[in-house]
Amino acid sequence: MSEQMKAADQRIAEAQGPIDALDAEHKTRQRDLDGKLSSASDLAQQLNRSADKLADTQKHVERYVQGKREQKLRAQQALLDESTSEIKKFEKQVEEARNRIAQIDKVINESGSSLSNLRENIRLRKVIRQIEVAQAEIDSYDMEEAARAKRTFNEKWKVAKDREDKLQNKFSHIGGEISSHKSQLELWETDAKEYKDANKKYTDQLIKVKMSDMANNDLEKYAKALENAIMKYHTLKMEEVNDTMRHLWNKTYQGTDIDGIKIRSDVEGGVSKRSYNYRVVMTKDQVEMDMRGRCSAGQKMLASIIIRLALSDSFGQNCGILALDEPTNALDTENIEALASSLVDIINERKNHANFQLIIITHDENFLRKLGQSDVMEYYWRVSRDARQKSTTERQRIR
């Protein structure tokens, strides 16, 4: 192997000489090329100057043509031919220089390719030599000892790997527990902030609840007491109204078919939604019957007046005014006379009351005359229209 390396080094040294020679030739040709390029540039400048001279000659020719100078024209023609010959010679030299430059470029390119190949070969030989050195070092090792060392290393590595896996699992488990504890801690911190004044708030709320319960109980007791009071008041007032109605009916009604009238109240619904339905009943021989549909128009009118008087006595002690608007409508003569007689009895019954007033609005003059014959009134007020259709009132005596 060392002999091969020496031979390779010798070949490399032998190849290095041509490479150096090519580099020197390349530099020489480069200098020649630079010189020729400089010469070509000078030649181009000369050509430009010749072109300028040719232009001057053209101007002289034109002046000659104008001045008819044949001799000068021939001289200038000879000068022009000479300049044209020089231009062709210079153009030929430029073409030769260009061809030479192309040949030099070709040689340079070929030399560069050869140089690259030589460099790649040198690099390859260096790599081969490094491989051989590494192989020799490997061959010097004890393979059995290396195998035992490898097995020992693998066993230790496996044990260490298992321990690493266990530690990694434990680390992950502990990390999860830490994360869970952090979440729980954040939750507890939030709860701690939220329930910071929990005891005070609970105590305040408990006081409010207890006070509300006590207030509700008191209100419930008050409601029951109020309900009982209202019921008792309602019962007493209804008894009072019915007593007054019975008294007035017995004093005023002239017939014998009805012993008395009263108001009945029927309770509907529960305690919270209690309602009353009122109805007027008449009694005969202690038997009650609804008056609706069973009484005459006169009895209905008299009952209406008596009910209103009884209600005003019970609920309007400071206001004893009673107004009757057309009370004789839909009544026959007999009922009108009975109503007039009943009203006379009511007036005589109530005339000692200081606040009692009875206002009757009627168009029935016979009814009015019946009242006047009983000495309960001396005059009345007539409402009429004058010539200008305006309402007027006039006091008139009962005839």
What does this structure look like?
The chain is 72% helix and 12% strand. It is elongated, with a radius of gyration of 74 Å. The mean pLDDT is 78. It has helices at 2-67, 70-139, 143-194, 198-252, 297-315, 333-350, 365-372; strands at 260-268, 275-284, 287-290, 320-325, 356-361, 379-385, 391-397. The protein has 2 domains: 2-139; 224-397, P-loop containing nucleotide triphosphate hydrolases (Rossmann fold), CATH 3.40.50. It is an alpha+beta fold. Strand 2 (275-284) and strand 3 (287-290) form a beta hairpin. It starts with a helix and ends with a strand.
Tell me the distance between the termini.
175 Å
Rg is 74 Å
Strand order of the largest sheet: 1-2-3
Tell me about the largest β-sheet: 3 strands, antiparallel
Q: What is the mean pLDDT?
A: 78
The first-level CATH class of the largest domain is given as Alpha Beta
Beta strand count: 7
- How many individual helices? 7
* Category from helices, strands and their pairing: alpha+beta
